From TrEMBL:
Keywords: Sigma factor, Transcription, Transcription regulation. GO terms for molecular function: DNA binding; sigma factor activity. This is RNA polymerase sigma-70 factor (ECF subfamily). Belongs to the sigma-70 factor family. ECF subfamily. One of its GO terms (biological process) is DNA-templated transcription initiation. Coiled coil: none annotated. PANTHER family: RNA POLYMERASE ECF-TYPE SIGMA FACTO, RNA POLYMERASE SIGMA FACTOR. Residues 120-172 form the RNA polymerase sigma factor 70 region 4 type domain. Gene3D superfamilies: 1.10.1740.10, Winged helix-like DNA-binding domain superfamily/Winged helix DNA-binding domain. CDD domains: Sigma70_r4. It comes from the Bacteria. Residues 32-99 form the RNA polymerase sigma-70 region domain.
């Protein structure tokens, strides 16, 4: 009973903060961003690998949210709205990055072979997923968003989200099992 009352109080508090931010209260907006900073970082990290790109995406997201918060129709969807803005900025950065060619891509491959799966953990396995699978995993498991909300965020059918989750789980299980098998044979 107490937990339900506490959750309802927090929901009303957040709705109140969004309402205050919409009428120009900078402190309320700052509090909302502070409450969501870990979520923003995790999602940006899942989509972008380079820290500078991650920082840029988060800064653009905060700026866009600040400039457009009055356009938010339903206060209870602030978090989802903020994540959608971040995903759009991450996609823009990825599009711009595809247009450039790094020097590393032009260099010749080294003659030695290095086992990239030797020390793989769950985080590395997640980052080895294709972008469309990785973002679904991050939103579902790290951000606790239901597949219906993920579908709305990514503008894909809910069945596609469930399919991507299934494919990603199988891939992660396979990768992590390979790592465990490599560890077992090295210990012998």
């Amino acid at each position: 009973m107490k937990l339900t009352a506490l959750l309802n109080t927090n929901i009303h508090k957040k709705k109140g903060l969004v309402a205050l931010a919409k009428i120009g209260d900078n402190e309320a907006f700052s509090t909302l961003i502070h409450e969501n900073k870990r979520n923003l970082y995790r999602i940006a990290k899942a989509m972008l690998y380079q820290e500078l790109d991650i920082e840029d995406a988060i800064q653009y997201t905060i700026l866009s949210a600040y400039q457009n918060i009055k356009k938010l129709k339903k206060d209870e969807y602030f978090r989802t709205w903020l994540i959608r803005i971040l995903i759009n900025h991450c996609n823009n950065i990825l599009r711009l990055r595809k247009r450039t060619i790094s020097l590393e891509e032009l260099s010749f491959p080294s003659a030695s072979y290095e086992d990239t799966y030797k020390d793989m953990d769950l985080q590395e396995a997640i980052f080895s997923l294709k972008e469309d699978l990785r973002i679904v995993i991050i939103l579902f498991y790290y951000e606790d968003l239901p597949s219906k909300d993920i579908a709305k965020l990514l503008k894909v059918p809910e069945g596609t989200v469930r399919s991507r989750l299934s494919i990603a789980r199988k891939f992660l299980q396979k990768q992590l099992n390979l790592e465990n098998e490599n560890m077992d044979t090295e210990d012998i």
